[in-house]
Automatic annotation (TrEMBL):
BP-aspect Gene Ontology terms: DNA-templated transcription initiation
Keywords: DNA-binding, Sigma factor, Transcription, Transcription regulation
Biological source species: Actinacidiphila rubida
InterPro entries named among the record's database cross-references: RNA_pol_sigma-70_dom (IPR014284), RNA_pol_sigma-B/F/G (IPR014322), RNA_pol_sigma70 (IPR000943), RNA_pol_sigma70_r2 (IPR007627), RNA_pol_sigma70_r3 (IPR007624), RNA_pol_sigma70_r4 (IPR007630), RNA_pol_sigma_r2 (IPR013325), RNA_pol_sigma_r3/r4-like (IPR013324)
RNA polymerase sigma-70 domain: residues covered: 93-106
Protein name as it appears in the record: RNA polymerase sigma-B factor
Keyword Repressor among record annotations: no
Gene Ontology MF terms: DNA binding; sigma factor activity
Transport in keyword set: no
Length: 292
C-alpha cells in the first residue's frame, strides 16, 4: 500500500524533463490531467503500445506509466460520483483508493485483449472503492443505538480487563454500564456486524499455505471475465445482422419470450422460429470462432 500511495503522490504533481524523459516516439505532455477524456482514450492506446516495450524502472517507462495515470484520473472521478454525498474527508479517501484501482488496471492491461481501457479499468476502480467501504464501514446495517453501544462496550471491556486482569463477564459489563444484561448481549452480537471476514486474509495453516490468501484456495477462474472478450467479439457481428435477425435475438434473449410467443408475434410457426434461432446462433458461434 505504501508503494501505491507514493505513486499516487507522484501522479498528481508535475514532473519536469530532468526527472522523467519522454521516449522519442511519445509526445511530451506537460499536464496530462487537463487532457479531455476523448483525447485521453486515443493517447492511452499510444502510450500502452509503447509501455509494453519499455524497460520497467527506466525514466521512459516512468514517464509513460505516470502519464497514463494522470490522463485517466477522470475515470476515478467518474466512479466516485456514485458515492457522492459523503463528507469531504471521506471523498478524498475515495479518490485515493480509486487511484490505486486505476494503477492496478494500468499495470495489468494488455492491448492484445482488444478491450477498451475504460471498460477494463472501471471495475478495478469501483472494486477498490467498495473494498474501502467494506474495511471501514459496518458490514451490515445496525441501528445507531447499537453502533454507539459497541463503542461503550469496547471502552468498558478495556477498563475492566485492566482492573481485574481478565476479560469481564456479561454481568460485570452490565453492572459497570448500568444496563440490563440482555442489552449488553444484544450489543455484543451487533458488534459482530462491524466487520466481515475478508477473502484476502491469510489461511490458518501458515506452514502449508505460506503467503496464500483464503481467496486463492477457493474455486476457479471467474468465467464472467471471459464474457468481456466474448461481448467485444460479438458486438460487430450483431451490427451486421439484418433487422429480422436482430429482432429475433432481442425477443428471445432480451425480452425472454418463448418461441411460441415469438411465432405468434411475427406470424411464424414455433418450429420455424426454432429453426431460425438455431441457424442464427450457429452463424454467430462460427463467426466468434473465426475471430478468435
Amino acid at each position: 500500500m505504501a508503494a501505491e500511495m507514493s505513486v499516487i503522490a507522484s501522479a498528481g504533481t508535475a514532473v519536469d524533463g530532468r526527472q522523467q524523459q519522454a521516449p522519442a516516439d511519445l509526445p511530451w505532455i506537460e499536464d496530462a490531467g487537463k487532457i479531455a477524456p476523448k483525447d485521453a482514450r486515443e493517447l492511452s492506446r499510444l502510450f500502452f503500445d509503447r509501455l509494453q516495450d519499455l524497460e520497467e524502472g527506466t525514466r521512459e517507462y516512468s514517464y509513460a506509466r505516470n502519464t497514463l495515470i494522470e490522463m485517466n484520473m477522470s475515470l476515478v472521478h467518474f466512479a466516485a460520483r456514485r458515492f457522492r454525498g459523503r463528507g469531504p474527508e471521506e471523498q478524498e479517501d475515495i479518490l485515493q483508493v480509486g487511484t490505486i484501482g486505476l494503477i492496478k488496471a494500468i499495470d495489468r492491461f494488455e492491448l492484445s485483449r482488444e478491450v477498451e481501457f475504460t471498460t477494463f479499468a472501471v471495475p478495478y476502480i469501483v472494486g477498490e472503492m467498495k473494498r474501502f467501504f467494506r474495511d471501514t464501514s459496518w458490514a451490515v446495517h445496525v441501528p445507531r443505538r447499537l453502533q454507539e453501544l459497541r463503542v461503550e462496550l469496547a471502552k468498558a471491556r478495556d477498563h475492566l480487563s485492566a482492573v481485574n486482569g481478565s476479560a469481564p463477564t456479561v454481568a460485570e459489563l452490565a453492572a459497570y454500564l448500568d444496563l440490563p444484561e440482555e442489552e449488553v448481549i444484544e450489543g455484543m452480537v451487533a458488534s459482530n456486524g462491524y466487520t466481515a471476514g475478508s477473502l484476502d486474509l491469510p489461511t490458518g495453516d501458515a506452514d502449508a499455505d505460506e503467503g496464500r490468501s483464503y481467496a486463492e484456495t477457493l474455486g476457479d477462474d471467474d468465467p464472467a471475465m471471459e464474457l468481456v472478450e466474448d461481448f467485444q467479439a460479438l458486438a460487430p457481428m450483431l451490427h451486421q445482422l439484418d433487422e429480422r435477425d436482430r429482432l429475433l435475438l432481442q425477443m428471445r434473449f432480451g425480452q425472454e419470450m418463448t418461441q411460441a410467443q415469438i411465432g405468434a408475434e411475427l406470424g411464424y410457426s414455433q418450429m420455424h422460429v426454432s429453426r431460425l434461432i438455431s441457424r442464427l446462433l450457429d452463424r454467430l458461434r462460427a463467426g466468434m470462432l473465426t475471430e478468435s
